[in-house]
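Quick one, tokens below. Sequence please?
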């Protein structure tokens, strides 16, 4: 399985004025990779993920998953947003089962998958709870379990931990690394947090702004097995600093271009 973005561009029209959000994006994500996308606000990170999810269509270029053009949403891609978007009237286990109810999966297989992903995400104890009874971290665990239960080829994460406190965020980072290792699912994640991107990713793609385009694709040369202690190691700190410099450089270039126009 390979996810390919081929010369992808995206335009938006606001009050009759066309703005290019992404331009000339070429990206390849191989089976089992964990790729993080970072960039300053307005660099098109979420637009890119929306295109891969099939929620919108490219203005130019194409997106291909396993040789098949992406033309809309599909079960081969699971999407988790910053807000878990759970159904408030459904229990945890029924939220996790929701996507499976839309697929040709029999009741026994559905129950088996729900049980496995509840265990994988540490939710067995709250399986009968409603979303209003959960913490922010638990809600995101449910959203992740729901997406993974459909066993998509690619898991798309749109800043899923951005609203969490620091401790819960780090707990979720450890969890998603473990789930990724256990399932082998391909992951494409958007985040504004460079430290998070370096900890989670095998590659970090840096987007430039105005329009959004790939400025750098950095390999994360850290061991596949990581715990939070790696964040204090010199090689981690060096990678983080390098990518932060790249993001800062692209942001400065954007500000300079805007100032020149004004």
């Amino acid at each position: 399985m390979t996810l390919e973005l081929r010369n992808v561009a995206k335009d938006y029209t606001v009050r009759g004025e066309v703005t290019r959000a992404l331009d000339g994006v070429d990206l390849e994500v191989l089976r089992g990779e964990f790729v993080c996308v970072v960039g300053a606000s307005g660099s098109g990170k979420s637009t890119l993920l929306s295109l891969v999810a099939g929620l919108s269509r490219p203005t130019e270029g194409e997106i291909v998953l396993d040789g098949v053009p992406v033309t809309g949403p599909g079960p081969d891609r699971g999407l988790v947003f910053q807000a878990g978007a759970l159904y408030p009237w459904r229990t945890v286990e029924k939220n996790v089962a929701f996507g499976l109810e839309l697929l040709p999966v029999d009741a026994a297989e559905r129950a088996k998958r729900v049980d496995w992903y509840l265990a994988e995400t540490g939710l067995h104890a709250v399986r009968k709870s409603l979303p209003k009874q959960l913490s922010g971290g638990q809600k995101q665990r449910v959203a992740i379990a729901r997406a993974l239960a459909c066993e998509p080829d690619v898991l798309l994460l749109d800043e899923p931990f951005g609203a969490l406190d620091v401790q819960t965020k780090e707990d979720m980072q450890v969890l998603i690394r473990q789930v990724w290792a256990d399932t082998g699912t391909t992951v494409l994640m958007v985040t504004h947090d460079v430290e998070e991107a370096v900890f989670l990713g095998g590659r970090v793609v840096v987007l430039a702004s105005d329009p959004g385009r790939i400025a750098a694709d950095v390999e994360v040369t850290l061991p596949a097995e990581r715990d939070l202690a790696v964040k204090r190691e010199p090689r981690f700190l060096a990678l983080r600093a390098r990518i932060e410099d790249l993001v800062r450089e692209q942001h400065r270039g954007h500000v300079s271009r805007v100032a020149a126009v004004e």
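Helices lie at 45-53, 92-101, 107-120, 136-149, 166-183, 194-200, 234-261. The domain at 2-23+30-76+154-261 is CATH 3.40.50.300 (Rossmann fold).
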